[in-house]
Amino acid sequence: MAGLAGTLLPAFGYLPALGRGGFSLEPWHRFAALPGIWTSVGRSLATGIATTLVSLGIAVALCAAWHGTAWFRHSQRLLAPLLSVPHAAAAFGISFLLAPSGWLMRWISPSLTGFARPPDWLTVHDPHGISLTVGLVVKEVPFLLIMMLAAMAQSDADRSRRVALSFGYGPMTGWLKGVFPRLYPQIRLPVLAVLAYGISVVDVAMILGPTNPHPLAVRLVRLFNDPDLSWRLPASAGAMVQGVLVGVGIVIWTGLERWVRAAGSRWVVSGRRHPEDRALRFAAGAVWVLATGLLIAGLAAMGLWAFADGWRFPEVWPDRLTWTTWERHADGLRAPLVNTLSLALGATGMAMLLAVGLLEAEARSERGSWTRFGGLLYLPLIVPQVAFLFGAQILLLSAAMDGRWLAVAWMHLVFVFPYVFLTLSGAYRAWDRRFESVGMCLGASRFGVFLRVKLPMLLRALTAAAAVGFSVSVGQYLPTLLIGGGRLPTITTEAVALAAGGDLRVIALHALVQMALPLMAFGLAVLIPGWQFRNRRALQAAS
Amino acid sequence: MIASRRFRALLALIAVVVESAAAPDWADILNEARGQTVYWNAWGGDARVNRHIAWAAAAAQQAFGIEVRHVKLADTADAVSRVLAEKSAGRTSGGSVDLLWVNGENFAAMKQHGLLYGPFVHLLPNHHWLDTNNLPLLSDFTVPADGLEAPWSVAQLVLLFDRDRLTTPPRTPDALLAWARAHPGRFAYPRPPDFLGTTFLKQLLLQLTTNHPALGSPATAAEFQRWTTPLWQYLDALHPHVWRQARAFPGGGPALVRLLADAEVDLTLAFSPEAAASGILSGQLPGTARTTGFEGGSIGNVSFLAIPFNSRSRSGALVLANFLLSPVAQARKQDPSEMGARTVLAVERLDPADRDLFERLPRHEASPSPGDLGPLLPEPHPYWMDRLEQEWERRYGGR
Fold first, then answer.
1. Per-residue pLDDT for B6 more than 60?
2. Which end of chain B has fewer surrounding CB within 10 Å, N or C?
3. How near does any CA of chain B get to the CA of A376, in Å?
4. Interchain contact A18–B (C-beta under 8 A)
């Protein structure tokens, strides 16, 4: 909040450190006069909405088409690894696939295309943000799927689906009519988070997005970083615009939701069963395979780069694979790894305690969901980081707290907590309270039930939330750098610093390491419940 | 104008005299530095630079007992922000940045807002060897350094190309335009305000106006329009033939190296004559990469080391800055297999043993011969830089 004030005041011309004590609208005029700024604004909004629509569409279509089948259960195992890929790493991978000098082009060049040199095509960085949207979608679909799976486990989706099938509904229609309407409220917040992220994303937009002009968030980071410090004032104004833009996105999305609900509810009760939906189901599967394939191929390319020694267009494979890059950088990785782990564990631990505490208090409170303290909780997801971090930094500096592990971990918590809460709350709120009554009838105390029935039943959601929190913490760049004063280098700060240098081998190496940590967390998130539930069939089936 | 410049020089001189009267002895500084930890904030985007910094850190630890930690920045402005935030929060000592690799606009901003310690350069024993006669070491993008930053190395705008795909690179603006017309999409320059992109604009401006003296000072709007008209006409003609028809621009120097390595372009820019050599040695560029200079010379400038006003380990920072100016460190930095950054020392004035360090440096086959490079051209006044960036943005940035 204080950080936000540190953004709001400069937006109206107040920044004493630069000798600006008065209030004026000048920053707004300067912001509005930036060339092409409204193109940037439009692109950001369009990218966010397109990303959310497409991602949700794919996730829903996939669940509708294949939920309950063996193939679906198998492909779920892919989700955690996919989710653990840092956005920037995925974006680098995608860019190395889709660029005119990229892997796809190398597979068909020069044999099919005759291109001995890459063609001058605007594939990545395209002005309409299509490659940016693709890059975001491949990352958001797994996120939404995991959220949907967690919610479905709690909403009896499987039985509803089977009931619908037995009434002669096609699998997709049955799921859409029987499961989705109950599911959507539970995943609404994750969907809005995807929307906000798509509108204000920085790193992916730098790697894949339009460059002339850049999307709004990228321009803001540049303004905040401008050596001419007076640009901070218009940048703060821009940050307000960015916040409002996310608000506009949410309003538009809510409008869409209304329209879908109105149209959908007529369809649900129409009784149409659409029993023959084979083609559509395969199409949904194909899109999913394509999206996942893109991501995996991109990551494979990254993996190769980390070992490549000489890899020029149009070669499909590197000349040689070596450990040279790893040997050169092994020493430099140790300290950042330790910092990354300790920060992620600390922030995630705090976030989990806080989230469970709040949700449990809510469950016990008579007035219901008082913890839905409006959008407040989600502010860190909606306000662009770069904007309020500057304010928060000054606050922590005044308290001589900057550069301390605790301050950085606390700043991570600000970003980790909303995601943990988001991941956990759906399942937590949907927990059937009759279990509690049963437990208490059997003579257990309320706390005993909480500890021995509720938490174990929610274990899958808990571990998933922890893994999400862990990976959010691992991915933090700006908070770590600004609040840590550079004293606590993490894998991500190193990766971003080196990404500025453009040596793909070094970028790839750091991306792989950065990816490995959340991957382990998600691995544990899958393994721990699996092991715990090894002799509890009903809970296994819930996955 | 001249009078005021003279007056300012006098003031600076008085300041230096007063400072040196009160200045601590170098031996005291060395003593105080022992045991200090120096947080050296420096761009961390290049693995070779990072390795060189790690070498310097180990050497300084051994020789002077100071612990050097490299804070790897993605953007120097991050550190400027931090010092600014510290000043906002009233922290006038115990700051988090001790030594900063800085130049250009970042230096100007820090100087303007009183974020720097100094003048300190006269305190460093090695400053006697600086080649102030031949190199523009006293000002940073025409902003007087006033001893607030110590020169670290010299860079110069050059053309970077692949000899296999382009045997005789065009070395004048006209030749470049003709070549680009004949080879559409094979040349790229980064979008200003990336410093390489902006430097390219300034280079074109200098060449298209045959280095007109008006560029050395601020100008009126009418003068700006008059002298930059040829530049915009030139870019209007060039843009349809550059990489992606100027509908997208590469981000900066490292991106250009990748474009050349990926064969997306055949010709681009770099800011170090050793760019090709060090790219080859690090395996990023094919062995056929080369650099050459612009005909008639090109813009060069100097990167510097500065100490923020609130540095916690000021003595340690001074000792480190002095070490980085030593012949040993400078020769190592100039080695193409290390960094390939040209020294700021007057090599001919050094002791024979120290001179030998430089003379024994291997010359890489990809390095340009001195004849290719031409003289270092002076930067235009910062007035032009700001306005060029704004006008470029207005004309080409919002499409």
1. no
2. N
3. 26
4. yes
Residue B286 contacts by C-beta under 8 Å, 6 or more apart in sequence?
A310, A312, B162, B164, B261, B280
Which residue in B193, B386, B397 is closest to A36 by CB distance? B397
CA–CA min distance A55, chain B (Å): 27
pLDDT of residue A20: 62
Task: Evaluate whether A414 touches A351 at the Cβ level (below 8 Å).
Answer: no
Q: A528 φ, ψ to 5°?
A: -60, -50
> Are the Cβ atoms of B89 and A99 closer than 8 angstroms?
no
Q: Is B130 helix (H, G, I), strand (E, B) or coil?
A: strand
Pairwise CB contact (< 8 Å): A506 & B72: no
CB of A492 within 8 A of CB of A514?
yes
Token pair for B167: 């045997």
- What DSSP line would sit under A452-514, residue for residue? IIIHHHTHHHHHHHHHHHHHHHHH--HHHHHHHTTSS--HHHHHHHHHTTT-HHHHHHHHHHH
Task: Tell me how far CA of residue B23 lies from CA of A69, A394, A445, B217, B310, in angstroms.
Answer: 80, 33, 74, 35, 18
Q: Which residues contact B156 (CB under 8 A, 6 or more apart)?
A: B271, B272, B273, B293, B298, B299, B300, B342, B373, B376
Give A504's contacts in chain B (Cβ within 8 Å): 258
The C-alpha atoms of residue A333 and residue A489 are separated, in whole angstroms, by 10
Nearest to B248 among A125, A228, A487 (CB): A125
Residue in chain B lying closest to A210 (CA): B248
Contact A503 B394 (CB under 8 A): no
Q: Label the pairing between strands B158-162 and B289-292.
A: antiparallel
Q: Which of B85, B87, B246 sits opposite A393 (nearest CB)?
A: B85
CB A117 within 8 A of CB A393: no
Give residue-wise pLDDT tens across range A130-182.
999 999 999 999 889 988 887 777 667 777 777 877 777 887 888 888 888 88
How many CA within 13 A on the CB side of residue A385?
21
d(CA A542, CA A73): 11
Helix, strand, coil percentages (3-state) for chain A, rounded to 5, are 75, 0, 25
**DSSP character for A451?**
I
Residues 6+ apart with CB under 8 A from B226: none
Nearest by CB: A101 against B39, B78, B264: B264
Measure the CA–CA gap between A156 and A302, rounded to whole angstroms.
Answer: 40
Question: What span, in angstroms and rounded, lies between the C-alpha atoms of A196 and B76?
Answer: 29
Q: pLDDT tens digits, residue range A286-306? A: 888 898 899 999 989 888 988
For residue B353, the distance in angstroms to the closest alpha carbon of chain A comes to 32
Whether B399 and A393 lie within 8 Å, measured CB to CB: no
Nearest CA among B376, B375, B338 for reference residue B358: B338
Nearest Cα to Cα of residue B42 among B306, B278, B279, B254: B306
Q: Select the residue of B97, B104, B184 nearest A120 (Cβ to Cβ).
A: B184
Considering only CB atoms, which chain A residues are within 8 Å of B270? Answer: none
Distance between CA atoms of B154 and B138, rounded to whole angstroms?
12
Q: Which of A243-247, A383-387, B199-203, B229-233 has the lowest mean pLDDT?
A: A383-387
Burial class (CB in 10 A: 0-12, 13-18, 19+), B222: exposed
At a CB cut-off of 8 Å and minimum separation 6, what does B265 contact?
B185, B186, B187, B188, B243, B256, B259
Closest residue in A to B285 (Cα) is A310
Comparing CA positions, the residue from A91, A71, A192 lying closest to residue A137 is A91
